[in-house]
Amino acid sequence: DTSRDDVDDTENLRKLYTTRNVLKTVHILCLMVGMVFCFFPHLLLKVLHADEFSGEATTALYLAMGLLGNQIFAISSIWGDIARDGVSVRVQSVGALCAAINFSTIALSNIYLMAVGKMPLAIPRETVVTITGVALVAGGLCLAGWVIGGSVLPNRRALVPKGKAKWPLLIGIASLSACAIACSFYPRQLAELINPGVLDSLPGATTATLGAKHGVKDFFENVQGAAASSFGGKKGVKDAVEGMQGAAANSLGSKKGVKDVMDNLPSASTALHGAKKSVKDAYDNLPSASTTFHGAKKGADELLAPIGKLSGPVPMIVMMILLAGRAMGLIILGTLAICSVGDEEVSYRLLRCWCLSCAFSLGMLAKDNVLMSATGWLSPRYNLLFAIHFVVTFCMVDAMAAIPFKLVHPKTVSGGRKDTVSSEHGTPEKQGAGAAKAKKVK
Question: Full-prediction pTM beyond 0.70?
Answer without folding.
Answer: no
